[in-house]
Amino acid sequence: MAVFGSGFSPLAGQPRMGMIPVPTKTATAFTLTTGGGARTLTSAECLGGLLVINCDDAQTATLPTAALLNAALPAAVAGASFDVDIVNVGDATLTVAIGTGGTLVVGNSKSTVATLVALASKRFTILVTGVLEQGDSSDAYTVIGHGSIAAAVA
User: Fold this and answer.
1) Percent of the chain scored above 70 by pLDDT?
2) Ramachandran sector of residue 103 (left: φ over 0; alpha: ψ -120 to 50; beta: rest)
3) Would you say residue 103 lies in a domain?
Protein backbone atom coordinates (compact mmCIF):
# COMPACT_ATOMS: atom_id res chain seq x y z
CA MET A 1 0.00 0.00 0.00
CA ALA A 2 1.41 3.37 -1.02
CA VAL A 3 1.43 5.83 1.85
CA PHE A 4 1.60 8.97 -0.33
CA GLY A 5 -0.47 7.79 -3.31
CA SER A 6 0.74 6.38 -6.59
CA GLY A 7 3.50 8.13 -8.49
CA PHE A 8 4.84 10.03 -5.48
CA SER A 9 8.13 9.22 -3.81
CA PRO A 10 9.31 11.82 -1.30
CA LEU A 11 13.00 12.57 -1.00
CA ALA A 12 14.48 12.38 2.47
CA GLY A 13 14.41 15.76 4.17
CA GLN A 14 12.35 17.46 1.42
CA PRO A 15 8.89 18.96 1.94
CA ARG A 16 6.03 17.06 0.38
CA MET A 17 5.23 19.18 -2.67
CA GLY A 18 4.20 16.42 -5.06
CA MET A 19 0.52 17.32 -5.09
CA ILE A 20 0.54 20.99 -4.12
CA PRO A 21 1.02 23.61 -6.84
CA VAL A 22 3.88 25.95 -6.03
CA PRO A 23 2.91 29.52 -6.93
CA THR A 24 5.29 31.47 -9.15
CA LYS A 25 5.61 35.17 -9.94
CA THR A 26 7.03 36.90 -12.98
CA ALA A 27 8.67 40.21 -12.16
CA THR A 28 8.18 43.18 -14.49
CA ALA A 29 10.41 46.20 -13.92
CA PHE A 30 10.16 49.65 -15.49
CA THR A 31 10.76 53.35 -14.78
CA LEU A 32 8.13 56.09 -14.68
CA THR A 33 9.23 59.69 -15.31
CA THR A 34 7.55 62.95 -16.24
CA GLY A 35 9.10 62.67 -19.71
CA GLY A 36 7.69 59.16 -20.21
CA GLY A 37 4.27 60.02 -18.82
CA ALA A 38 1.70 57.80 -17.17
CA ARG A 39 1.60 54.12 -18.11
CA THR A 40 -1.25 51.65 -18.47
CA LEU A 41 -0.26 48.22 -17.20
CA THR A 42 -0.98 45.20 -19.35
CA SER A 43 -3.02 42.25 -18.17
CA ALA A 44 0.05 40.00 -18.56
CA GLU A 45 2.10 42.28 -16.29
CA CYS A 46 -0.61 42.18 -13.62
CA LEU A 47 -1.07 38.41 -13.89
CA GLY A 48 2.72 38.02 -13.47
CA GLY A 49 2.15 39.07 -9.86
CA LEU A 50 5.15 41.36 -9.23
CA LEU A 51 5.70 44.91 -10.49
CA VAL A 52 8.93 46.69 -9.54
CA ILE A 53 8.52 50.33 -10.51
CA ASN A 54 11.21 52.99 -10.33
CA CYS A 55 9.06 56.08 -9.92
CA ASP A 56 11.55 58.91 -10.56
CA ASP A 57 8.90 61.64 -10.75
CA ALA A 58 5.42 61.52 -9.22
CA GLN A 59 3.58 59.47 -11.81
CA THR A 60 0.62 57.12 -12.40
CA ALA A 61 0.39 53.45 -13.35
CA THR A 62 -3.13 52.47 -14.41
CA LEU A 63 -4.47 48.92 -14.13
CA PRO A 64 -6.04 47.44 -17.29
CA THR A 65 -9.75 47.67 -18.00
CA ALA A 66 -11.98 44.93 -16.63
CA ALA A 67 -12.71 43.73 -20.18
CA LEU A 68 -8.98 43.32 -20.98
CA LEU A 69 -8.27 41.64 -17.65
CA ASN A 70 -11.14 39.16 -18.01
CA ALA A 71 -10.06 38.35 -21.57
CA ALA A 72 -6.55 37.51 -20.31
CA LEU A 73 -7.75 35.27 -17.47
CA PRO A 74 -8.18 31.64 -18.44
CA ALA A 75 -11.86 30.81 -17.86
CA ALA A 76 -12.64 34.05 -16.01
CA VAL A 77 -15.52 33.68 -13.56
CA ALA A 78 -16.91 35.95 -10.88
CA GLY A 79 -15.03 35.14 -7.69
CA ALA A 80 -11.69 34.38 -9.37
CA SER A 81 -8.83 36.35 -7.83
CA PHE A 82 -5.08 36.85 -7.92
CA ASP A 83 -2.53 38.98 -6.08
CA VAL A 84 -0.24 41.66 -7.47
CA ASP A 85 2.67 43.00 -5.43
CA ILE A 86 3.76 46.51 -6.43
CA VAL A 87 7.10 47.82 -5.23
CA ASN A 88 8.01 51.49 -5.65
CA VAL A 89 11.83 51.60 -5.67
CA GLY A 90 11.91 55.22 -6.86
CA ASP A 91 12.24 58.49 -4.97
CA ALA A 92 8.74 59.83 -5.72
CA THR A 93 5.14 58.86 -4.95
CA LEU A 94 3.53 56.34 -7.28
CA THR A 95 -0.20 56.53 -7.93
CA VAL A 96 -1.96 53.30 -8.91
CA ALA A 97 -5.16 54.13 -10.80
CA ILE A 98 -7.98 51.69 -11.42
CA GLY A 99 -8.98 50.89 -15.01
CA THR A 100 -12.49 51.14 -16.43
CA GLY A 101 -14.80 48.63 -14.75
CA GLY A 102 -12.69 48.47 -11.59
CA THR A 103 -13.33 49.53 -8.01
CA LEU A 104 -10.66 50.04 -5.37
CA VAL A 105 -11.22 49.22 -1.70
CA VAL A 106 -8.47 50.24 0.72
CA GLY A 107 -9.34 49.93 4.37
CA ASN A 108 -12.92 51.12 4.82
CA SER A 109 -13.01 53.47 1.84
CA LYS A 110 -13.68 53.17 -1.88
CA SER A 111 -11.61 55.18 -4.31
CA THR A 112 -10.18 55.11 -7.82
CA VAL A 113 -6.52 55.58 -6.86
CA ALA A 114 -4.02 54.23 -4.34
CA THR A 115 -0.65 55.78 -3.61
CA LEU A 116 2.67 54.23 -2.71
CA VAL A 117 5.28 56.52 -1.24
CA ALA A 118 8.91 56.22 -2.27
CA LEU A 119 10.59 52.98 -1.21
CA ALA A 120 7.35 51.23 -0.27
CA SER A 121 5.42 48.17 -1.40
CA LYS A 122 1.81 47.12 -1.39
CA ARG A 123 -0.09 43.92 -2.13
CA PHE A 124 -3.31 44.14 -4.08
CA THR A 125 -5.84 41.35 -4.55
CA ILE A 126 -7.81 41.66 -7.78
CA LEU A 127 -11.21 39.98 -7.49
CA VAL A 128 -13.31 39.42 -10.62
CA THR A 129 -16.85 40.58 -9.84
CA GLY A 130 -18.46 40.51 -13.28
CA VAL A 131 -17.95 38.68 -16.58
CA LEU A 132 -19.99 39.98 -19.49
CA GLU A 133 -19.69 36.69 -21.42
CA GLN A 134 -21.32 34.85 -18.51
CA GLY A 135 -24.44 36.99 -18.40
CA ASP A 136 -23.30 39.72 -16.01
CA SER A 137 -24.24 43.27 -16.96
CA SER A 138 -20.57 44.21 -17.49
CA ASP A 139 -16.98 43.12 -16.95
CA ALA A 140 -15.90 44.26 -13.50
CA TYR A 141 -13.29 43.76 -10.81
CA THR A 142 -12.58 44.95 -7.30
CA VAL A 143 -9.07 45.76 -6.14
CA ILE A 144 -8.42 45.24 -2.44
CA GLY A 145 -5.33 46.97 -1.03
CA HIS A 146 -3.54 45.25 1.85
CA GLY A 147 -1.41 47.56 3.99
CA SER A 148 1.72 49.37 2.90
CA ILE A 149 5.23 48.41 3.91
CA ALA A 150 7.72 51.26 3.84
CA ALA A 151 11.37 50.41 3.39
CA ALA A 152 13.92 51.52 5.95
CA VAL A 153 15.89 54.54 4.79
CA ALA A 154 19.51 54.73 5.89
Assistant:
1) 79
2) beta
3) yes
